TrEMBL record:
Protein's UniProt name: Major capsid protein
Family annotation (InterPro entries): DUF6260
One Pfam family recorded for the sequence: DUF6260
Source lineage: unclassified sequences, metagenomes, ecological metagenomes
């Protein structure tokens, strides 16, 4: 599947005839037990050249994954040891129990509860972007002692990172049967509401503060008590850097960060215009499933004259709610 920005999402699917891949690279992985190093072993690049690519990839990922980085830093990640060999992630949603019994003797027979389990699932696609280098350019770089041009690797890494970040907020259309990827703005049980004024432009500091307090109240109404991260787009971010009130000694952003329950405010270009999201940073609300950290692989065509590269990762958000429909996500528009 190809997205509008040129990023591809490959799939490996199973049927009665076995496993089948949707691309050449996926076929190589399928033939090597899903070991990503199969696309780096005996490759044309030297160690120093791989180091240049990997260094640039890490640099770009840090710049373009602020929300994903925040989730992982908060311990909200779920690592899969064989991400390339896992196409569907399944987990159980557990029902709640009645409140505990209270008695003076402790021997009165309490209500016998039985937990119910609902099986949930989501697909784990590969996010990747390809680029090529002619072997003559590589040889010229070596002959002249010049560093390998990493501009293509940086752009490919940026596009993969942006798609990874976008999935957290918007989800993705990839489906395998009933399994699909939900984002913060598409999860069906999230709390929704309306901004009292457009945060992107017209809202005053007082109005934004009122909306944030209302969002906290909505989350608490679902028994979600924080800590919270506030996600805004860049026009809202810029507006929040204005004075909270006329001639104030603090900005609206500073005032919002004084609320004890708000742990951080993160800007993202993927938050839709005139919308805001508040997210409880706990594992029962969201975690980032990490099957493969961003990496670069290589193969050859045209008799070795053309070197093909693929920046790829498996990093997918798992957005959750309780069996009773309670969610730690509040989405205002």
């Amino acid at each position: 599947m190809q997205l509008a920005n040129g990023v591809h999402i490959d799939t490996i699917h199973a049927d009665r005839g076995g496993l089948h891949a949707s691309s050449n690279v996926a076929n190589v992985l399928l033939g090597n037990g899903f070991n990503v190093n199969a696309l780096r072993t005996n490759a044309t690049l030297r160690k120093e050249e791989w180091l240049q690519f990997d260094t640039k990839l890490i640099e770009v990922a840090r710049q373009r994954l602020p929300l994903v980085t925040a989730l992982i830093a908060a311990g909200l990640s779920f690592n899969i040891s064989d991400g390339l060999g896992t196409t569907i992630l399944e987990w159980e949603q557990v029902s709640d129990m009645e409140p505990a019994d209270v008695s003076m003797d402790g021997v009165s027979r309490g209500e016998q509860d039985i937990l119910e389990f609902t099986l949930l699932s989501m697909p784990l696609p590969i996010i990747h972007k390809d680029f090529t280098i002619n072997v003559r350019k590589l040889h010229a770089s070596r002959r002249l002692g010049q560093p390998l041009d990493t501009a293509q690797a940086a752009l490919a890494g940026r596009l993969v990172a942006e798609t990874t970040e976008s999935m957290v907020i918007l989800g993705h259309a990839t489906r395998v049967g009933a399994a699909q990827i939900f984002g913060l703005t598409t999860e069906g049980n999230r709390s929704t509401g309306a901004q009292s004024a457009d945060w992107d432009s017209a809202a005053t500091g007082d109005q934004i503060l009122t909306d944030v307090l209302a969002m906290i109240a909505d989350a608490q109404g679902d028994d979600m008590y924080g800590p919270y991260v506030l996600l805004v787009n860049y026009p809202s971010w810029n507006n929040m850097m204005e004075d909270f009130k006329a001639a104030s000694d603090k900005t609206t952003m500073q005032r919002i960060k004084e609320i004890p329950d708000i742990s951080n405010i993160i800007p993202s270009k993927d938050v839709p215009a005139s919308e805001s999201i508040m997210l409880q940073m706990t594992s029962d609300v969201i975690d980032e499933v990490v099957g493969l950290q961003p990496t670069t692989v290589q193969w050859e065509t045209q008799g070795g004259m053309m070197l093909h590269f693929k920046v790829m990762s498996i990093m997918i958000p798992r957005v959750r709610s309780t069996v009773t429909g309670q969610s730690g996500i509040v989405h205002y528009s």
